[in-house]
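Progress note, sequence design subtask.
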């Protein structure tokens, strides 16, 4: 209960967005209100488990308490969510951030799983030549609540019977270039007491190879995927110049070998196949050698084309040949089906909504 009728002097201000608070700051806020500490996780359950957008809906607070909280705080969610639905069932969600920038997430139904691919930045720090997002440059890092809100926004729009089973941090941006935002987001997404409650083992972070930060992924308890995409430094310098200059292949692979893998888990290596560039049998043999002895699997991603990329998607026969060389060498190698290409929702295609198409198939679904 409040100690006085007047709202206490507080650093939070009237407009504090509750979604911006980590647990410690929420505990400070409830303390300033003169409430017991358990109110903080109680409020978080409303935000992350019931997904309310209005303090008025927090019905285990008294009328007076809700009114009091409303003098200090609000709930500001992502705005203007639009959904693009692909012929293959993949759905691309576009939502507006507070400063007007757009965030993109992709929902992929496959083999009984429902995977949501999250963005961690608007644009990207890196300059990988085969990725459309790289062309935007970095607009900014997403804040923790903007990463979490992608999940809440999609959960609000799932159809009856649908449930998210997996999360991948593989959308726009380099997650390890936004480690603070990602770390706090994972805390809120995995907590079962007051958070969204998705198990860490069902979450995978994909990095272009910020070698010194791989160990931080281990600390989070989530799975690691590394976008290798090349088998020599020369090739990787050409395809992924910024990251490979910082952390060349040998130091990246050394960090991967040092990754403290929990029992029964594997590292994932992603390898974008570019026709005539990195898709020969020789490349496959080199890849097998680089990864020999590692507890890992390889996801082959045939290049998803976009205008003026300068790259081509290989023929299916070349993709199968590449896979078979890896398999003969004893590696677990899979070909990732490209989903959502017609809505520019596939790997490497985030960052641009084709305008004419937008008018035709964007379905506004309201807030
Ligand atoms: N920055 C992180 C996550 C975003 S990219 C990373 O690099 O891992 C997610 C995956 O898409 C990466 O494996 C990347 O290599 C791949 N990718 C990027 N552009 C692509 C394209 N045009 N076609 C197919 N895969 C692409």
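Output:
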């Amino acid at each position: 209960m409040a100690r006085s009728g007047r709202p206490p002097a507080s650093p939070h201000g009237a407009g504090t967005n509750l979604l911006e608070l980590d647990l410690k700051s929420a505990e400070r806020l409830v303390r300033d209100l003169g409430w017991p500490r358990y109110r903080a996780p109680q409020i978080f359950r409303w935000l992350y488990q019931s997904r309310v957008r209005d303090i008025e809906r927090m019905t285990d607070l008294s009328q007076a308490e809700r009114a009091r909280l409303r003098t200090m705080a609000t709930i500001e969610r992502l705005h203007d969510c639009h959904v693009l639905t692909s012929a293959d069932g993949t759905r691309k969600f576009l939502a507006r951030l507070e400063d007007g920038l757009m965030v993109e997430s992709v929902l992929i139904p496959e083999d009984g799983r429902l995977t949501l691919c999250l963005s961690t930045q608007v644009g990207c720090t890196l300059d990988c030549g085969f990725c459309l997002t790289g062309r935007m440059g970095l607009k900014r890092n997403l804040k923790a609540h903007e990463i979490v809100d992608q999940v809440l926004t999609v959960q609000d729009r799932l159809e009856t019977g649908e449930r998210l089973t997996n999360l991948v941090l593989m959308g726009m941006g380099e997650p390890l270039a936004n480690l603070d935002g990602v770390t706090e987001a994972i805390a809120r997404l995995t907590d079962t007491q007051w958070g969204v409650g998705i198990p860490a083992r069902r979450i995978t972070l994909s990095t272009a190879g910020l070698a010194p930060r791989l160990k931080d992924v281990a600390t989070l308890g989530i799975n690691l995927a590394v976008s290798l995409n090349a088998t020599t430094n020369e090739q990787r310098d050409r395809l992924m110049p910024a990251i490979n200059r910082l952390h060349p292949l040998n130091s990246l692979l050394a960090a991967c070998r040092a990754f403290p893998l929990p029992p029964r888990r594997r590292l994932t290596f992603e390898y974008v196949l570019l026709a005539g560039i990195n898709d020969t049998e020789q490349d496959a043999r080199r890849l097998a050698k680089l990864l020999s002895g590692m507890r890992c699997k390889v996801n082959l991603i045939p290049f998803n084309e976009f205008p003026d990329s300068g790259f081509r998607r290989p023929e299916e026969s070349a993709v199968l040949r590449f896979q078979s060389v890896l398999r003969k060498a004893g590696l677990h190698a899979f070909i990732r089906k490209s989903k959502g290409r017609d809505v520019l929702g596939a790997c490497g295609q985030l960052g641009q909504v084709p305008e004419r198409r937008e008018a035709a198939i964007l379905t506004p679904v309201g807030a």
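The first helix runs from residue 23 to 32. Work on this subtask will continue into the next period as scheduled.
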